[in-house]
From TrEMBL:
Keyword annotations from UniProtKB, A to Z: Kinase, Membrane, Phosphoprotein, Transferase, Transmembrane, Transmembrane helix, Two-component regulatory system
InterPro entries, sorted: BphY/WalK/GraS-like, HATPase_C_sf, HATPase_dom, His_kinase_dom, HisK_dim/P_dom, HisK_dim/P_sf, Sig_transdc_His_kin-like_C
Entries under Gene3D superfamilies matching the protein: 1.10.287.130, Histidine kinase-like ATPase, C-terminal domain (3.30.565.10)
EC numbers on record: 2.7.13.3
Reaction catalysed by this enzyme: ATP + protein L-histidine = ADP + protein N-phospho-L-histidine
Lineage: Bacteria, Pseudomonadati, Bacteroidota, Flavobacteriia, Flavobacteriales
GO molecular function: phosphoprotein phosphatase activity; phosphorelay sensor kinase activity
Domain (Histidine kinase): residue spans on this chain: 305-523
One Pfam family cited in the UniProt record for this chain: HATPase_c
GO cellular component: a single term: plasma membrane
Residue ranges of the TM segments: 6-28, 259-282
Protein name: histidine kinase
SMART domains hit by this protein: HATPase_c, HisKA
């Protein structure tokens, strides 16, 4: 995959993910806003209902007192009857309709002092109505005379409730305005009505209330009521016939936001969980894409390095074979043996590289059987140094040992652990631009022995340190192959050490050398 295509894919996937997160956030915000609007509408309906019930209760209280007073007086003092008559004739059916409507006005002699009013010029009266419908059938008798026979009579007698109510309320509203608010409504009434109405509306939420008159707080309020613009709702109370009032009922919900959020919490949590799953899956996919791209690059580097390292031995073998085929060389046995030894060494070198690749593969598949015996780690270090001593001498360097560990017996495989130390020493030699200067230390730390291999080479950057033990990884040096290797040595080291229940790590600084640490459990 080309770099441009890879970047484009990552950009598109990132844009899609950001879009999903944005849509989810917008959906949650919209849901909260919708719930808030629905909540506000329900609360306003509740407050309007409470206001109406308080006003009706107040009017009913005075109506009952008025009716009780009428009952105590008994007979009315004077009455006046007014009647309306209306006649209609249906020619097709020969029927005549006679409508009559009478209104009886009863005066009980109750003045407006019932309302504690200063004026006594307003009489209080009661009205009753009588409605009659007569249907007369027109016919002809035996003598040919026209006759009228009543066929149906309908009578209704009732009170003029609408008139009574309007008449009574007009007086009452003027009187009630002069009463203190605490005499018109109590804290307990508001509390009970709000609780009942809110419960019926499905709003089970703590509330505080207060009645304000002309914008100022009154004593009719709950104990913890505090005016808050964001959580308060207002409705007028005790409205007069002109639609005006001096009082407002205010209700606040301190836990309103929490209530609204909790109402959509279930769906919001599911949305967040699924979004997180998408984010995690996306992150994992991006990580795998980047890792696969890195592995692809590393493998390409590995193939290039292996090709380069195989190319030199093959060329050397070919040159040796060509030299042996020369008749002049055949006459000199020493020359022939020298060229044969070169062929054997180069072949062994290529074989060792192939074995390294196969060994790493077996280690990863847990197919490599490693038998362990009780060994002295100092002996293994000496043996590993012997393997690289010739290369160090040729470079004019040295390896100094500092065996300070009092106990040095470990359970290890001699062959593989010798290779571990050889690989580390070989790296120290390779990455020392000048004469390699290597010091090997051992010390006992609790029940473990720590082996420290310190060089004074070119060192490593922090970025390289993070990946130094990855398979096929080598520090990029362009197309220069002045350092032999194929990125398997330290991966092999890590696998073998961990198989011995040990730990390997490195400390390094650019241009100041590196120090490898191996920690193994003692027997």
């Amino acid at each position: 995959m080309s770099r441009k295509l890879f970047v484009l894919l990552v950009a598109l996937m990132s844009l899609s993910l950001i879009g999903i997160i944005f849509v989810q956030g917008y959906w949650i915000k919209t849901a909260v806003d919708d719930k808030e609007e629905q909540f506000s509408n329900s609360v306003m309906q509740v407050l309007k209902s409470v206001s109406d019930k308080i006003e009706r209760r107040e009017i009913e209280d005075y109506s009952n007192k008025f009716l009780q007073l009428i009952d105590s007086i008994g007979e009315f003092k004077e009455a006046e009857l007014r009647e309306i008559l209306f006649i209609d004739k249906d020619e097709e059916n020969n029927e005549t309709f006679i409508y009559s409507h009478g209104v009886l006005e009863e005066d009980y002699g109750i003045s407006s002092t019932f309302f504690d009013s200063e004026s006594d010029s307003i009489p209080i009266k009661s009205f009753n109505s009588k409605r009659r419908t007569i249907i007369v059938k027109e016919g002809v008798d035996i003598d040919g005379k026209v006759t009228y026979t009543p066929s149906e009579r309908i009578e209704k007698i009732g009170g003029m409730s609408a008139i009574d109510k309007a008449h009574f309320e007009t007086y009452f509203r003027h009187y009630a305005k002069r009463k203190p608010i605490r005499e018109r409504v109590s804290d307990q009434e508001i509390q009970l009505l709000l609780q009942r109405e809110l419960s019926e509306a499905g709003i089970d939420l703590h509330f505080e209330y207060g009645v304000y008159g002309n914008g100022l707080a009154t004593k009719v309020r709950s104990r913890d009521f505090a005016l808050s613009e964001s959580t308060r709702y207002k409705v007028p109370i005790f409205v007069d016939e002109e639609g005006k009032t001096d009082f407002d009922l205010l209700v606040t919900f301190p836990q309103k936001k929490k209530f609204l959020v909790s109402s959509i919490m279930g769906m919001a949590l599911l949305s967040i969980i699924f979004t997180l799953i998408i984010v995690i899956a996306y992150s994992g996919a991006i990580h795998q894409l980047i890792r696969q791209k890195q592995i692809s690059e590393i493998k390409t580097d590995f193939i290039n390095n292996m090709t380069h390292e195989f190319k030199t031995p093959i060329a050397t073998i070919n040159l040796a074979l060509d030299a042996i085929q020369n008749p002049k060389v055949l006459e000199h046995r020493d020359k022939v043996r020298q060229y044969l030894q070169m062929i054997r060494d180069e072949n062994k070198r290529m074989h060792a590289q192939v074995e390294n690749v196969l060994r790493i593969s077996k280690l990863e598949k847990n197919q490599l059987e490693i038998a362990k015996d009780a060994l002295d780690i100092h002996d293994i270090i000496e043996e590993a140094i012997a393997h690289v001593s010739l290369m160090i001498e040729n470079r004019g360097g040295y390896v100094h040992t500092h065996f300070e560990a009092e106990q040095s017996e470990v359970l290890a495989n001699e062959f593989h652990f010798t290779n571990v130390l050889v690989n580390i020493l070989d790296n120290a030699i390779k990455y020392s631009p000048e004469s390699p200067k290597i010091d090997v230390y051992t010390e006992t730390v609790k029940n473990n022995i720590v082996i420290k291999v310190q060089d004074q080479g070119m060192g490593m950057s922090k970025a390289v340190l993070k990946r130094i033990f990855e398979k096929f990884y080598r520090e990029h040096t362009g197309n220069i192959h002045n350092v032999k290797g194929h990125g398997l040595g330290l991966a092999y080291v890590k696998n073998i050490v961990e198989d011995h229940q040990g730990v390997v790590y490195v400390e390094s600084e650019k241009d100041k050398g590196s120090t490898f640490f191996i920690k193994l459990p003692l027997i």
